[in-house]
Design goal:
Residues 13-93 form the Phosphoesterase HXTX domain. The chain has 183 residues and is α+β, with helices and mostly antiparallel strands. It has a single domain, classed as Alpha-Beta Complex (Cyclic Phosphodiesterase, Chain: A), CATH 3.90.1140.10. 21% of the residues lie in helices and 37% in strands. It has three helices and nine strands. It has helices spanning 16-26, 56-69, 99-111; strands at residues 6-13, 33-35, 42-51, 73-83, 91-97, 124-130, 146-149, 151-158, 165-173. Strands 2-6-5-4-7 form a five-stranded antiparallel β-sheet. A four-stranded antiparallel β-sheet has the order 3-1-8-9, covered by helices on one side. The longest helix has 14 residues, at 56-69.
């Protein structure tokens, strides 16, 4: 009997109040843009893709180890931007500032290099995707939200008909040392 691989990623979920505010702002986007559903707003730390189900224990152990190396830390949202660029926008996102995110992402990608996406980590929270190429968002947005990140999740993404469905498989509490204060 074979088991289907699991499509997995690690992410920091956005708090409910932040998701609600982002969703209100996205209501002003042109219909060419498809907003992310508020319950799925997150900051991806490491996308693993298809992981054999019998290797899930390895993924969980890597999450535990990464969580033990970083303590709770402040995170701040900033300006919006587009991937790949403003001239050819495909994804609208909000920039994120929090150096400990880089540490978490690096630790997870190093431990799970067999599956982790090799692209450089760019901390961001995806807001919307372009339905058809070409039209930039009609206005820039700035979000001045901040919160303390105390955990991250391992999420299974199921691609079915329409949008992906996300299921949290495990939450990892950050138990490491507190980050040094910013100068």
């Amino acid at each position: 009997m074979t088991t289907e691989p699991l499509r997995l990623f690690f992410a920091v979920p956005a708090p409910a109040a932040v998701r609600a505010d982002l969703a209100r702002a996205l209501g002003r986007l042109h219909r060419d843009w498809r907003p992310v559903q508020p319950h799925q707003m997150h900051l991806t730390l490491a996308f693993l893709g298809a992981v054999p189900a019998d290797r899930l224990a390895v993924v969980l152990a890597a999450g535990q180890q990464a969580a033990a190396r970083v303590g709770p830390f402040p995170l701040r949202l900033g300006d919006t931007d587009c991937f790949p660029n403003q001239q050819q926008p495909r994804v609208l996102y909000v920039q994120v500032a929090a150096p400990p995110l880089l540490r978490l992402a690096s630790d997870l990608q190093a431990a799970l290099a067999e599956w982790a996406d090799a692209k450089p980590f760019r901390p961001h929270l995806t807001l919307a995707r372009q339905r058809a190429a070409g039209r930039p968002p009609h206005h820039a947005m700035r979000f001045d939200h901040a919160w303390t990140v105390e955990s991250f999740d391992l999420i299974r993404s199921d691609l079915g008909h329409g949008r992906a469905e996300h299921t949290v498989l495990q939450t990892f509490r950050l138990t490491g040392p507190a980050p040094a204060p910013a100068d």
